[in-house]
Amino acid sequence: MIRVRCSTNPRVPFRRVLGFALAISLSAGAAAQQREAGGRGAPPQSPRQAAPIDLTGMWVSVVSEDWRFRMVTPPKGDYQSIPLNAEGRRVGDTWDPAKDEAIGNQCKAYAAPAIMRVPGRVRVSWQDDNTLKVETDAGQQTRLFHFGGAEPPAGEPQWQGYSVATWEMLTGPAGAGRNDVGPVRRGGSLKVVTTHIRPGYLRKNGVPFSENVLLTEYYDRHTNYGEDWFTVTTVVVDPKYLNREFITTTDFKKEPSQAKWNPTPCEAR
User: Fold this and answer.
1) What is the 3-state secondary structure (H, E, C) of the chain?
2) Dist. CA 131–CA 164, nearest whole Å
3) pLDDT for 68-106, tens place per residue?
4) Would you say 63 and 70 are in contact if contact means Cβ atoms under 8 Å apart?
5) pTM score, whole prediction
6) Dist. CA 197–CA 112, nearest whole Å
């Protein structure tokens, strides 16, 4: 039995929650088909070969919501829409960008839980058959999505943490995954779970996340009016600083070339 937990974030459409449930229920059928094919002697496919959607290429973020939180640095103490608990607010109120600059922590707002909300471009490619690479021009960050369920390496946490990726297959009838504005999901989603993340900010104005943060993302590719897009749904869980899940959706549109790629360093302000 599948239990669907509805988000408390009013900006996350209920159809996306239902889409997740559909993906989970149908992925079991896809797995059974793959096992059957393997039983007939077919060699197993690599994650790159088995990809139900193609996320490679150059993409630009399209800021259609939360403009004042993403395009400019919000004022100190502006925590609107983030479910901070009392401790989170206390830590957020100590934000000092000059101090971050002095100790080389300009990238605290470019860590994995926040980087996809930073306006800019991302370049997606396969590093190898089992590793998807996502590069950002804003902050010059590199994320590696590892298929295969490996454990995080020993050592200090990093800004981008350690990400384990899986494909969630859709094998339902034509039209499954369609939402009410046109896009159709192409066969499945990419799920990414990231841990071992260095503590940082959910927003540039010092909204904190801790060393205990758990980041889960769902990447869906779709087509809108002849243009290719992907949407990443981000779920941040941090019992130290948050009262509940913090959920956002962020849209990216595909670009024809790398002509506008513009790497810039992290900025604390």
Assistant:
1) CCCCCCCCCCCCCHHHHHHHHHHHHHHHHHHHHHHHHHHCCCCCCCHHHHCCCCCCEEEEEECCCCHHHHCCCCCCCCCCCCCECHHHHHHHCCCCHHHHHHCCCHHHHHCHHHHCCCCCEEEEEEEECCEEEEEECECCCEEEEEECCCCCCCCCCECCCEEEEEEEECCCCCCCCCCCCCCCCCCEEEEEEEECECCEEEECCCEEECCCCEEEEEEEEEEECCEEEEEEEEEEECCCCECCCEEEEEEEEEECCCCCCCCECCCCC
2) 9
3) 999 999 999 999 999 999 999 999 999 999 999 999 999
4) yes
5) 0.82
6) 7
CA distance 124 to 142: 10
For the chain, what's the residue count? 269
Q: How sure is the predictor about 172, in pLDDT bands with cuts at 50, 70 and 90? A: low
- Token pair of 13 as six digits: 């459409």
- Say yes or no to pLDDT of 16 above 70: no
Tokens of 76: 């100190």
Backbone angles phi, psi at 29, to 5 degrees: -65, -40
Spatial neighbors of 103 by CB under 8 A, at least 6 apart, are: none
Ramachandran class of 26: left when φ > 0, alpha when ψ lies in -120 to 50, beta otherwise: alpha
Name the CA dihedral angle for 98, 65, 224, 143, rounded to a multiple of 10 degrees.
Answer: 30
Read off φ and ψ for residue 120, nearest 5 degrees. 155, -160
Side-chain half-sphere exposure of 177, counting CA atoms within 13 A: 25
Candidates 51, 72, 179; CA nearest to 124 is: 51
* In contact, 203 and 69? CB cutoff 8 Å: yes
Contact 228, 100 (CB under 8 A): no
Q: How many Cα neighbours within 13 Å face the side chain of 77? A: 1
